[in-house]
Amino acid sequence: MSSENESSSNATRPTVQSNVQPTGKATNVKLVLLGESGVGKSSLVHRFVNRDYEANREPTIGAAFLTQRCHLEDRVIKFEIWDTAGQERFHSLAPMYYRNAQAAIIVYDVTKASTLEKAKSWVKELQRQANSSIVIALAGNKLDLVEAEGDDDDSDENERQVAEEDARAYADEAGLVFMETSAKTSKNVDVMFTEIAKKIPHEHLISANRNDGRGIRGAHGNVDLMQPASENRSSSQCAC
């Protein structure tokens, strides 16, 4: 993990070829999480931001806002993350969050095939209505459940319903970043955010610097935020 005040990570930073020159100032990138309720969107983002996992999280109401910095070789990206509620009654609010977003993570549960179908509908909606250059990632979450199959009596309930090769083939065809993840064990969580950061078009980074993130938080007065990010939380660093 790297920070302005300390450097304590043994991980090698990703190498990125870019014409954007490295600076000390972070570039704001708006990212939205979408997916059916219960697939683990909030757990993923809290693993990324707070480096922890909380079982049996309460469902998000409306949306939650968190931030995290990702250090690449040539630039620093500050993800401004909108974690949206998955309940159907909040679907109409989604355009408020993915409007002008540079990136999106659409999450499904590898043990529930129906959640992948919902994820595909989100992909279609973003491709139809969001920014044409938005970077979309498809995350098959709860990988820890299927990796633990056969270890306990509940393995039948956790049987994989979405084959990795099928989801990957769909993601490749749709032009998505694809990763199977586990918020519980942290597997592939940082990798996914790093891959997204590397794929943000340079013109979006330039535009984000000009805007300096203004207008992104305009929805605070319109929704109930269960987990608003504090200034201290916002300054935490990822292990990218």
Automatic annotation (TrEMBL):
<feature type="region of interest" description="Disordered">
    <location>
        <begin position="1"/>
        <end position="22"/>
    </location>
</feature>
<dbReference type="InterPro" id="IPR005225">
    <property type="entry name" value="Small_GTP-bd"/>
</dbReference>
<feature type="region of interest" description="Disordered">
    <location>
        <begin position="209"/>
        <end position="240"/>
    </location>
</feature>
<keyword id="KW-0547">Nucleotide-binding</keyword>
<dbReference type="InterPro" id="IPR001806">
    <property type="entry name" value="Small_GTPase"/>
</dbReference>
<feature type="compositionally biased region" description="Polar residues">
    <location>
        <begin position="229"/>
        <end position="240"/>
    </location>
</feature>
<dbReference type="InterPro" id="IPR027417">
    <property type="entry name" value="P-loop_NTPase"/>
</dbReference>
<protein>
    <recommendedName>
        <fullName>Ras-domain-containing protein</fullName>
    </recommendedName>
</protein>
<dbReference type="GO" id="GO:0003924">
    <property type="term" value="F:GTPase activity"/>
</dbReference>
<dbReference type="GO" id="GO:0005525">
    <property type="term" value="F:GTP binding"/>
</dbReference>
<dbReference type="Pfam" id="PF00071">
    <property type="entry name" value="Ras"/>
</dbReference>
